[in-house]
Design brief:
mainly alpha; 2 helices
Length: 25
Amino acid sequence: NDLAHKDPFTVALKNFGLKPSPNES
């Protein structure tokens, strides 16, 4: 989801390396 990339919450999670979106794999 492109929106996820723009979502500050998701971005924060990605910064922690949690990768909340399976699509990111």
